[in-house]
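Work Package 3 (structural annotation) set out to generate three-dimensional models for the target panel prioritized at the project kickoff. During this period the team completed the workflow that converts sequence records into discrete structure tokens, so that structures can be stored uniformly alongside our sequence database. As a representative example, we reproduce one entry of 666 residues exactly as it appears in the project archive.
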Amino acid sequence: MTTVNFSQVHGSQAPSHHGSGNQFFLAGLTAETLLRFRPRVPGPWSDERLRWLKERFLKPGGFQEAKIALARDSAVMLRGEAGSGRRATALILLDEPEHGRGYFHETFPTPDFSGHNPWDVSELDVGDRVLLDLSDADEEVHKIVDRELTSYCAAVKARGARLVVVAHDRYELSGHLWMAVRIERPDPSYVLARYLKVEGFDFTDAPPEPGLADFLGKAPVHTVVTLVDLMQAARSNDSTGGFVTWRHNAFTALEGGAKAVADHIRKLKPGRPRALILAAAMFCGLPADAAFGAAASLLAVVDYPADERHLLDRRDFAEELRKIGAEIDPQRRIRFDGLAFDAAARAHFWDTLPNLRPKLRFWLDRAVREPALTAEDRDELVRRFAEQCLRIGRIGDLGFLISRLTKTSETGRGAPLARHAVLVLEQGLQDEHYGHLFRRQTYEWSRSPRISDGLASAIVEVCVGSLCESYPEQALVRLHYLTRRRGDVGDLACRVLVEFVAEDNRLLRRLLHRIAHPERREDLVRRDGKLFLHLADPYRLVDGTTRSKPLVADNTIRRYLVSGWRAEMNGGSSGLLGVRTRDWLQAAATGPGGLVLLDILAEASAGSFAASSDLEAEAYSWARDTDGERASRARVVRSLSCKIDNAPPPGTRLPAPDNATVEAAQ
């Protein structure tokens, strides 16, 4: 199996400044602002991504058979050649409305980094959708799948969920031929027509492009996406050219661009011209001054001998650019003559100079700091670098870049480049081949107290961005670990997580299970006391207007609440205990379900004289701190005292109150 080693991203915590903590790129943002954040790289399960796919999707051969099999058996395996569109078909099948609108899950058939069993279905609910993609899996993984898949399919079906397996023709899953449906790639000319129509091209009566049909017939389906992207670029460069011209230029660049770039670079002298063409390709559309500095830093990084000529004896920068086929436009930005020449040049250097690759990450770390670049320029630069690293599989280079971008500045004023690390993380997380490695790494980072606040902040942002769109439960886990950090980032993670689960009872239940399960050691529950008290909003717990019954009427939720309160009452140190206790007392006095809230408080204090005494003292203090509500508050205090006196011993399971009890409790 493929193993990719991320660079370790550890470092000392940033020093404080002016006594008020570190300043990071998230400083000043609220949880609400972050949760409205729109990720720059849409997740594979996001509404935006699925909407994009549906607009362009053309049903391949076998689609209807696969749809029937999935409806009948709750599981189907899609087989076919690479590039036939199996994964896109899987996404469309799982998004069919008749299969439910539950969560998407993507599993991988080996035990993961957190000890989680990939064949465990306990987190699946009715309507959930599961994808198992074996496109890049090796023979060892296929043997594991062949052994486990039958029982997994049965378990998924029993949970009311649906499973689609994407398999490859290279390896046989002999025990599961019953669920296999072969996907035949759709006619590429029809796929191209669909894409062109969506993108607004008028190709009525356009003659065929010589050689295009044969080229697409042998290429993967996703080649159509590249062709249409090139046609859009050609249209932007020459809006008057017309469809036939745009298509011809795009096809020429797609079919022969790599060879043209290779031939062009081969004619250049070694050394500075080649460094300049790589810098210009990376900085195409970006400031020329930054490209000039980047070319010089590339030569320094690779230890190329310095140019001993006098400055006045050297060619000027514009002349050097013309020699390599580039120019400086009126906005003083780098441009190449040929369509998509810059993209082909970037791919050429990563493909043909493997000994140069380890140096490029050090160069990019310097280049991204060029003072002439704007924040948007830097985003584009790191996006291009990440694109090449993901294409080649150099994931460690991205780990190194993330560590550098999130490093605390020399002035101690946070990590000013950390926002660009978020973009790198987003690209990695959404990559079909390496996304699971980035999800593993963000998990490990979130658990480590040694990572910088800049990196922790970046993880918070990707959790509420692309990760929560596609993998909400994984985002929950990472945010949970980050809430344990001290300082501003831990507080922000706490607020973000509370808001994240505010409108999703399923996520709230999962989070309470993690932090306040009754079988969890009390000291471990207490460690998450701050988060628990933020979650324990009494008004939400007794609200029955948006669900069949209030959350507090759920016996499992009630047990979690008792466990969390008990841990805080017996030694919690969050400083929020008194405030939240008064919130519950006020909700008991003014809202429905008040007696149920008092039951939970009383049960949590049972078995501890100190806890029950402190609870009653807080209640008496609360009752005195008012002028107009003395009578109602006095009734709450008397009721609470009675419940404390009659509370069952710890460990006793009480039946949850029914709706009538909750409604009458006011």
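Confidence is low (pLDDT under 50) at residues 7-29, 35-39, 660-666.
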